[in-house]
Sequence to fold (404 residues):
Amino acid sequence: MKFWRKPLDLDEQKVVRGEVHILRDRCKGCGFCVEYCPEGVLKLDHAYNKKGYHPPVVIEGKECVMCRLCELLCPDFSIFITERGTGVPEVRDD
Amino acid sequence: MSEASVVKADPVASPAPPPRDEESIPHPMEEWLRMDRIPHIWCPTCGLGTVVTAFIEGLKQTDLERDNVAVVSGIGCTGRVAGYVKLDSYHTTHGRAIPFATGLALSNPKLKVAVVSGDGDLVGIGGNHFIHAARRNMDLTVILVNNFIYAMTGGQVAPTTPETANTTTTPYGAFEPPFNIPHLAEACGAVYVARWTSLHVRRLTESIRKALSKPGFALVEVVTPCSTLYARRNRLGSGLDLLKFYHDNSTIQNGARTSDVGIDFQKPFIVGEFVDHDRPTWFQLMEARMSATLGDKFIPKEGPSCTNSK
Fold:
């Protein structure tokens, strides 16, 4: 998560970080989690799972802010987030 | 089979995923699902699994006890919900989810009965039951999943199919005007009417929480993608493409006039919370009438759980 401008209370800001858990073999490869992850944490794997679908894989695991949108949207109950701790938000350079 | 016809994943482009002990942590939904029936039968990119998650999340946010909640559904893709949720549940015959749920609510007023069923089941085959349960303001929470089609039976035209949409029974395009479900429910007397799509998952969860906490006939319509029949026959892509369409074309207008919220084929549509008012429920009317006529001879049953808890 990045801020577009530097907030005055940046040193007090904390961002919850999540860890993504993917149940590969329950996934049906719909891609909802990949499309709607606000932080671009996931992408569809090139490899197949047991059912012949392409499940998601984590590419930017440290970016997860534990919004749980993937967990709520997943129609196959095959992705969920656990809390990993809190981090410090970054400020965009541009 | 020849060697060349075997499709293998490119070993360079797809590095093996790091070994993870995922099965050791159960998915948070597992305690609410009958895991012996999972994976479910719903197609890839169907929105029904999302609706189940939203329903359970909404239920968790209420103060209803798990033993005091029952789920009833009819026939159809959405009808499978009753079989997947680990709650007291019943899978009724086609269209008869609301009459069964009415009987359940009458026999045990402590029970909060939720009906989760499809558009064809609730307003098509069971349309008469729907309008009369709303008229009586029976203590039911109805989650109506609208995929615009009779999906499980093969994609026939439903009372919600928008005009010009192609279905298996209207190969030249549907020409019957469809139901505007929020308008129908409000006209019949529902006390809470909301419509969301399966993409508006947080707002949907909040609406389901409100509907479960509300005494009386509460309706939440959920527009969901049907990839295999509706989207494929109309060349709309996959369920993901339909979610993108909902994202770009749905406007949230809470409190909108329900007569304005009809859905046309692939046109922008309105979602939101349309109706939220109070009206005496069937139990309250019955008890008031019986007390007025019978006086002390009338012994009321214990009231519905939702009116006691809220």
Remarks:
- Residues 48-61 of chain B form the longest helix (14 residues).
- Chain B touches chain A through 40 residues (CB under 8 Å).
- The longest strand of chain B covers residues 269-276.
